[in-house]
């Protein structure tokens, strides 16, 4: 009996730890969102973070998108050739980029770049007691550090994904025309014929949610970083892993909401 209880306790500890972590993160996220709508707002910090999260992420997101679209066109063409369905390449590339690959891969690239940086920055501030200094100066650290980053992530990610979508479709067009022998006019007409606004809207909604996930994960792990360089490094790693996993989970949930019926 004692062994059975010990076994059940060993199983229960990680479950309880997971539930506690989800609860802490939920409270942190609620506090951050609440501060978005209550003044004062730190606009200078918001613009600085918008440049950092959005503008400076353009190269890596664009590079990823254009080669994703190119590889997707090749794969669809080779798969479609088995069933004499090569003509579906333009439409499937467009749908795949707009609904899934553009938002998800773009968000994962931004998560790797931004979440770790936010966690390391705020974690270093925690270790060096700069967050305590903000409280001493009657400045709410959540309002000054988290809210501007959260707003910047939510507002800039859809713009990034719009660029990623355009470049991804363009990458598929280049491969389709230059490599696979499609006529430029026919490829463009097939792409336009397959276009639906719901595909764009769903991708942009996903992008905004992913932006919130990326910034919240970075800030949360930064605020809860351990002492020393090792604690800051662990916080950065946990931020990237947590953001990436949550992006994949929320992507499924949002896809089910938009297209499940």
Explain the overall architecture:
- It is a single chain.
- By secondary structure, this protein is mainly α.
- It has one domain.
- Helix content is 86%, strand content 0%.
- It contains nine helices and no strands.
- The chain has helices at residues 2-36, 43-53, 58-81, 89-127, 130-136, 141-178, 184-194, 197-223, 228-259.
Quick take:
86% of the residues lie in helices and 0% in strands. The protein is mostly helical and 261 residues long.
Low-confidence stretches: none
What is the H-and-E element order? Answer: HHHHHHHHH
Structural Rg: 22 Å
- So how many helices? 9
Work out the count of structural domains: 1
β-sheet strand percentage: under 5%
Helix content: over 70%
Helix/sheet category: mainly alpha
Give the biggest sheet. none
List keywords for this structure.
261 residues; mainly alpha; 9 helices; 86% helix
Topology at a glance:
Blueprint: H1 2-36, H2 43-53, H3 58-81, H4 89-127, H5 130-136, H6 141-178, H7 184-194, H8 197-223, H9 228-259
Helix pairs in contact: 1-6, 2-6, 3-4, 3-6, 4-6, 4-7, 4-8, 4-9, 6-8, 8-9
């Amino acid at each position: 009996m004692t062994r059975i209880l010990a076994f059940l306790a060993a199983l229960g500890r990680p479950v309880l730890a997971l539930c506690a972590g989800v609860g802490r993160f939920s409270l942190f996220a609620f506090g951050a969102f609440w501060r978005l709508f209550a003044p004062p707002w730190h606009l200078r910090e918001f613009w600085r973070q918008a440049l950092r999260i959005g503008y400076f992420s353009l190269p890596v997101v664009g590079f990823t998108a254009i080669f994703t679209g190119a590889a997707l066109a090749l794969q669809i063409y080779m798969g479609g050739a088995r069933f004499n369905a090569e003509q579906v390449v333009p439409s499937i590339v467009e749908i795949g980029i707009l609904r899934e690959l553009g938002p998800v891969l773009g968000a994962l690239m931004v998560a790797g770049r931004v979440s770790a940086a936010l966690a390391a920055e705020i974690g270093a501030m925690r270790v060096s007691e700069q967050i305590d200094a903000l409280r001493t100066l009657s400045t709410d650290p959540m309002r000054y550090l988290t809210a501007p980053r959260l707003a910047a992530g939510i507002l800039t990610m859809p713009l990034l994904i719009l660029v990623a979508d355009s470049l991804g479709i363009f990458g598929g067009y280049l491969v389709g025309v230059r490599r696979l022998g499609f006529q430029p006019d026919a490829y463009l007409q097939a792409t336009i014929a397959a276009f639906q606004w719901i595909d764009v809207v769903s991708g942009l909604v996903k992008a905004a949610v992913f932006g919130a996930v990326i910034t919240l994960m970075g800030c949360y792990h930064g605020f809860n970083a351990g002492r020393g360089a090792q604690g800051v490094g662990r916080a950065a790693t946990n931020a990237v892993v947590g953001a990436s996993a949550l992006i994949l989970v929320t992507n499924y949930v949002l896809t089910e909401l938009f297209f499940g019926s």
